[in-house]
Amino acid sequence: MSKADDKRWRRTSPLAAIFYLGKIFKAISQNAIQTLAPGAAFLFAYEGDLMTRIVLGLTLFFVIVISLAFIRYWFFRYQIGVDSILIREGVLKKNQLDIKFKRIQAVNTIQNVIFRPFDLVTVQLDTAGSAKQEGYLPAIKSALAESLKARLRDETRADDTPTDEETDSTDASRKILSLTNLDMVRIGLSSKQALIILALLSPLLDNIGNRIEKMVDKSALLTVLDNAGISIAGGVSLAITGILLLLLLLAGASITGAFLRYYNFELHAERETLRSTAGLLTRHEHSVSLNKIQSLRAIQNPMLRFFKRFRIRAKQASSGKRTDEGKQFIVPICDLSQLPQLGAAVFADEFPYLDLDPTSSKWRPISRSYIRSRLVLFGILPTIAAVSLFYALIGNAAFIFLIWLPLCALAVITNYRKYGYDVVETGVMLRRGFLGYQTTAFLHRKIQRISVTQTKLQERKGLATIRFYLASGSLRLPYVDFNMAKDLRDYILYKVESSRFGWQ
Question: How far apart are CA 161 and CA 62, in angstroms?
């Protein structure tokens, strides 16, 4: 890329209008009432038959949307400078972004089926401190996208200043893992949508008999079944079959979504970059600089536990908002044997004793006082309050609230058993969970702040709660020894101050 090229404003391909069409339709779906209300009012006021109004309304809608997409493309300009990317956009309201290369955490590319024959991609620039992708370059040549990634790697190298021998030995891309079609099925069945389906399956099947029994008491239904030549048992079987087919259809949709998003998933590691490629119709390429990763988390929900698999999330610096879900690099599924490889790819030699296996014997438990405090706070006190409040209204029936005590005790004990931690020379590992597990690892030098707090009960027991503040959010470790917590706080502060690396 020549210096002359760097100084001129560029326009993307006209096919970028397709990108803006997607953004417009997404905005309309999120604000459908406000967006479509004026058009609906116009159609109601327009004189004419219904079909004419519908055709006119749809024609005007698509003409306006397509015109707006091309106008947004026409007013989009970008310039690649020495140390930043400048972006100008907007029709009535002009915006100019100046994105420094050093602030870019990741350069992600998306290539849909229309862009693929023209070798075009959409580049998303993910920066630290923003709640979403700060900038984008729609419909640019893939060669230009690769040059941007190379510039980002050069910026990282300038900070690390490796030797020639290190560069030669570590620059080559190496594949860490790839996923099979069977993995796509596992991803689909272990997604949040599939878990909701499985949660609904049990009560539906439990109640189906009672519901159908009530229905068959109605003479009208019996008459229909008799006329159709279907017995009561056949009607029950038909209802159960219909429900199972519906659940199977929903599960199939989840699996189809996994194929569309993660088909042919491959994860590659270079010297300073982690990169994934995946997608059936639309190819997604996500990359992240390793020094921008704040923590590494292995997740195992009930279905993933059944499959003996994990989902990995490498969290990056965020804006601190709860909705900031885009600041993570995701490996949708892996097995236990691949966890050490992923840990080594992210932390290299800085975390030699990293172990994200939730069943490992190394995890140290928190204090058993956690059970007592949580049971009193969330079990005993609410139960006493509920029984006292409703006894005057419903009498002895209020004692039904006592069932909350064993349920709460079971939940508290399960949470207690899932809590664990381990501290090594260079980092911290935390474990928690309820139905599944979450294990998180992070380096001492990534911690921006650490607090040690005590409640009155903890103070009497010599316990404390530690909270670690990273650029990606905070992590909590409750009910540990107070003296250990203070020593750990002092040790981490020493490691942060003595580290030759920044927080990044």
Answer: 53
Model pTM score: 0.78
CB 85 within 8 A of CB 135: yes
Same domain, 157 and 224: no
Residues 328 and 244 in one domain: no
Residue 181 in domain:
no
Token readout for 357 is 């296996």
Residues 69 and 15 in one domain: yes
Q: What is the secondary structure of 178-219 as a DSSP string?
A: E--HHHHHHHHHTSHHHHHHHHHHHHHHHHHHHHHHHHHTSH
**Does residue 419 contact residue 478 with C-beta atoms inside 8 Å?**
yes
Domain that includes residue 430, residue range: 269-366+419-498
| 191 & 213 share domain | yes
Between CA 460 and CA 7 the distance in angstroms is 66
Residue 42 and residue 70 in one domain: yes
**Long-range contacts, 180-185 (Cβ 8 Å, 24+):** 181/259, 183/262, 183/265, 183/332, 183/333, 184/255, 184/258, 184/259, 184/262, 184/263, 185/255, 185/258
pLDDT tens per residue, range 144-201: 988 888 877 776 665 554 444 444 444 567 899 999 999 999 999 988 765 555 555 5
Last residue of a domain, one of 386, 414, 442: 414
